[in-house]
Amino acid sequence: KHITSARFFSLLEGTSPSVKIPFPLPTSDAFQEYARKLGIRHDSHVIVYDQAIIPGIFACRLWWNLRAFGHSRVSILDGNLPYFEKLPDAMISSEGTPECQTGDFTVDVNQSLIRDYERMNSVVDAASTQILDTRLSVNFTAEEAEPSEGNKKAMIQASSKARKSFLTVKTKYLNKFKIQKLQIPVLSEVDLQMPITVTCYLGYTACMLAAALHHCGHEDAAVYCGSWTEWSQRKAEEGA
């Protein structure tokens, strides 16, 4: 079921997943074609929501994808579908994606919101950039290995410089869309006037933090799409 007139948007459309980056951004051409197929115009106000186990994780990733490809007029539905269903005048449907006219959305990539491996190496060395990591504390401190870490000890050594630069944010604070600074304690340590790059394990919960930061006034936090999955493997290959 879904909100009446809502259109399903696949985050995998036009992507080329790999072991290092399981959930990459799609190509610009593929994203533009798909967005137009779903009726998105240059002046559309896109509202995104999901019904995920971690509420908002997919909606926030789509929110970031749209902004990264140049569509800034996008909002996240406060409370997601479960909250919307409780409204007395909620319009819920079980029908498929409705027909729509082809949109005229044109991609204009916002590179300031995107971090790849090469740019992350520069970011790690830049004292003026704050890096926030949303993974669980036990993974952040290497008490427990992530699935991509075949040799936990080697990965820790290879990425010690990056880890020292990261601040940990527990994702449970990001599941509430009425976000205020006091609901995310780590923000007391963050300068919202300075550049911020956010990362996670697969490039999804980082987008939740980017949305939270946007709500708190920092509108251009960059997301490292490959996140720890790519970073740990690339550093291991380099023997760094």
Automatic annotation (TrEMBL):
Superkingdom of the organism of origin? Eukaryota
GO cellular component labels: mitochondrion
GO molecular function per UniProt: thiosulfate-cyanide sulfurtransferase activity
**Keywords recorded for this protein, A-Z:** Repeat, Transferase
All residue ranges annotated as the Rhodanese domain in the record: 2-93, 195-240
- Report the InterPro entries cross-referenced here: Rhodanese-like_dom (IPR001763), Rhodanese-like_dom_sf (IPR036873), TST/MPST-like (IPR045078)
Q: Which PANTHER family match?
A: SULFURTRANSFERASE, THIOSULFATE SULFERTANSFERASE
Name of this chain's protein = Rhodanese domain-containing protein
From which source organism is this entry? Capitella teleta
